[in-house]
């Protein structure tokens, strides 16, 4: 990773549920967009859920964390909480008016989600 990219997002980590539903795909793509925009860095939720020591330690050391869940199952939130992380912002895509199973994975929905998650970090 380049120093410029590291400085842009600092140690802000972004986790997305990336689930199989359309709202999970929106969550994933929003996190990737936020990374491209320099807001933070998308990080490995599977590593947190799998309790991979280096990933969990890096996450615990982050200054800011946002978890983006697609739906009310809150998988990203629960993965972070399972390893003792409670200091994070949380966004649920369905709380933005998108409906699981009825939401196109469109540029508009991705941008709206990225904006809402970014605002939580402001």
Give a written overview of the molecule.
β1, α2 and β2 form a beta-alpha-beta unit. α2 packs across α6. The protein has 122 residues and is an alpha/beta fold. The radius of gyration is 13 Å and the shape is globular. It contains six helices and four strands. The two termini are 24 Å apart. The protein has a single domain, classed as Rossmann fold (3-Layer(aba) Sandwich).
Keywords for this structure?
disordered N terminus, 122 residues, single chain, Rossmann fold, alpha/beta, 48% helix
Produce a short descriptive summary.
Helix content is 48%, strand content 14%. It has 122 residues and is an alpha/beta fold. α2 (22-36) crosses α6 (107-121).
In quaternary terms, these chains amount to single chain
Let me know the largest β-sheet.
4 strands, parallel
Task: Output the CATH class name.
Answer: Alpha Beta
Architecture (CATH level 2) name:
3-Layer(aba) Sandwich
Total number of helices: 6
Mean pLDDT: 93
Strand order of the largest sheet: 2-1-3-4
Give the SSE order as H and E letters: HEHEHHEHEH
How would you classify the helix and strand content by structural class?
alpha/beta
Rounded Rg? 13 Å
Mass-distribution shape: globular
Please tally the β strands and state the result. 4
Beta strand %: 5-15%
**Poorly predicted segments:** 1-9
Helical content stands at 40-55%
CATH topology assignment: Rossmann fold
Distance between the termini: 24 Å
How many domains make up the coordinates?
Answer: 1
């Amino acid at each position: 990773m380049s120093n410029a990219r590291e400085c842009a997002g600092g140690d802000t980590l972004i986790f997305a549920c990336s689930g199989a539903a359309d709202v999970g795909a929106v969550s994933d793509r929003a996190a990737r967009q936020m990374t491209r925009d320099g807001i933070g860095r998308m990080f490995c939720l599977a590593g947190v859920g799998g309790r991979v020591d280096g990933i969990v330690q890096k996450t615990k050391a982050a200054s800011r964390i946002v978890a983006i869940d697609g739906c009310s199952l809150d998988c990203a939130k629960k993965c972070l909480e399972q390893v003792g992380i409670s200091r994070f912002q949380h966004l649920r895509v369905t709380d933005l008016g998108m409906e699981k199973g009825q939401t196109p994975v469109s540029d508009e929905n991705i941008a709206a989600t990225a904006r809402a998650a970014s605002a939580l970090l402001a």
